[in-house]
Amino acid sequence: MTEKEKKEVTEVSEAQIAVHWQEEGYYYPSPKFIAQANMTDETIYDRFSLDNFPNCFKEYADLLDWYKYWDEILDTSDAPCYKWFRGGLINASYNCVDRHLEKNGNKTAIHFVPELEEEKTDHVTYQELWVRVNEFAALLQDYCGLKAGDRVTLHMPMSAELPITMLALARLGVIHSQVFGGFSGKSAADRIVDSGSEYLITMDAYYRGGKLLDHKIKADEAFETAAEQGQNVKKVLIWQRYGGKYSAETPLVEGRDVIVNDLLKNYYGKRVDPVPMPAEAPLFLMYTSGTTGKPKGCQHGTGGYLAYAAGTSKYVQDIHPEDVYWCMADIGWITGHSYIVYGPLALCASTVIYEGIPNYPDAGRCWRIAQDLNVNIFHTAPTAIRALRKIGPDEPAKYNYDFKHMTTVGEPIEPEVWKWYYKVVGKGKAAIVDTWWQTETGGFLCSTIPAVKPMKPGSAGPGMPGIHPVVYDDEGHEVPPGQGIAGNICIQNPWPGMFQTIWGDRDRFVSQYFERYCKNPDSKDWRDWPYLTGDAAVVAEDGYVRILGRIDDVINVSGHRLGTKELESAALVVPEVAEAAVVPVKHDIKGVEPDMFIALKPGFEASEALAKKINDALITEIGPIAKARKVWIVPDMPKTRSGKIMRRILAAISNGTDVGDTMTLANPEVVEAIQKMASEG
Ligand code: WT7
């Protein structure tokens, strides 16, 4: 980042800035790639210009099958809560499964790859997927009495049963809320309570790093915590992991826990017609971290979301029905929803679901999977690319796979790392897209259409067709492209994939994402409601966007969002803790990781054991992903005269950068004391 760019970034964000590189030159895709690409027509950007908004998005809606075609493409009468494709009736499960049967019933829909190499890969055809989705939908309808509009929380690991569960619920119009399997039972409980779920669907166990993890135990914790908060889960439905024998040590609770695999036998051969749902009916909730402690349930609609997932999968991911596509994200994140499940299945591709970690049992595993399944589209995050590069820089060359296309997502990618991805993983042949987006946005905001726009390492690319980014400074003035000045990146217009609201909290939706640059709060015109992404960005002359990082209190660890308040609240669960402040620290592989600063209540002493207890609390409250690099128990927090903790100073100490002027603090002496601690490790 240049000094000029830096100047524009606010105090909080400075510590979060991940990008320290400059513009790079272009790379072009091969003629071979272009010859087969789904989208090669440069006029797509004109077709999706603001002048043609919102009608341009008809092109995406027409990738889907509708029971009843929509009447109005965009209803803004409740702006900024928009309704896309109003009047339309559609079912997501039908679009991802049933409609492919006639031509492609025998084609593989899902390749489930267990982590243990001695276990066979499960190849689920579209026909088989249809059968399994129907049977499970019958169970959900009959045994659970679930119906359209109900919410169900899923806390499942990577498995074929996860999309089967999502699609069975979607078939009935039931709203699914999948919680990342690595999250704690307590995190699942918060989401059960917020969504008002009466059923929890989970799995007994799964493999990770060669170990069989008991996952069922988390369901007990989720159940109890939710009950304490007044939400009564009626049944816990437990899938047995691939292989179909119960493999958790935690015993079943009688009357509450049900083994799906057993119960399902009563539903063999049963069929359930997909329920035609209004286009704007919610399809799922996906919780994400924000500036307060409570995760937000981003509510995604059926028609708009699915149209956007399908359209972007077709044009950006370049998915054709004959492709074998592997996105290494977890289905518990939005990336997995849009780009493992809904997008690829809507397009009738074969999608790979891998249970485990990329380097188990060795650094060649990913490339072996790619070779064995003939994967030709590969999708992952910089954190994984950095790790694979570190542990096996020469591994890809040993395997015989052929990627035509690769994606990076979740955080900025260093040009050096990008070049390794391009030359070594992609063998110089694959087109790369860097895709910038968010849980809230349902699909890509900025990227390149790979056969139309060249790649530029370290830049996400221009706004997607139909997505019109704008950068504002803190006063709300537009920062024109090509000035090298950073600002708050917003999107001028709504789009079909965007979330509809925060579940049960419209006010928070409006205040957090729209208030800041709203031109008229009474307006029903979308032009008055720019969407605030929460990221800082610089736009180059050519319209390519470099995302610098978050400007709010969100830390992006390995491409996953953790709210600072969420982390701090977890630390405060430990009774000795008086105050907690978390800051991001640069990390080679993860991008950043959290450093936790703690001030104790009077009468308590700092100790290694206490620091560990605090770190353990982060893991049990949130999950292993929240583990701090270091817990610093400090004599006091550096504070302004008005009592605000100066996280910027803590971040500078953790990152070994200049703390700047501390004379305006109420307690400057404490900075020196903390610096001394840090230098002693
Ligand atoms: C935040 C959203 C996108 C789905 C997975 C993460 C950062 C995301 C990029 C990228 C630079 C990126 C942003 C964004 N981010 N993609 N390609 N380049 N930064 O979804 O957990 O909702 O996080 O991740 O800061 O706001 P999420």
UniProtKB/TrEMBL annotation:
Keyword Acetylation: yes
Family as reported in the entry's similarity comment: Belongs to the ATP-dependent AMP-binding enzyme family.
Annotated protein name in UniProt: Acetate--CoA ligase
A molecular-function term among this protein's GO annotations: ATP binding
Enzyme Commission designation: 6.2.1.1
Entry-linked SUPFAM superfamilies: Acetyl-CoA synthetase-like
Entry-linked Pfam families: ACAS_N, AMP-binding, AMP-binding_C
Domain Acetyl-coenzyme A synthetase N-terminal stretches: 48-96
Domain of life: Bacteria
Chain ranges of the AMP-dependent synthetase/ligase domain: 98-500
Key words of the record: Acetylation, ATP-binding, Ligase, Nucleotide-binding
Biological process according to GO: acetyl-CoA biosynthetic process from acetate
Domain AMP-binding enzyme C-terminal: 566-644
Oxidoreductase in keyword set: no
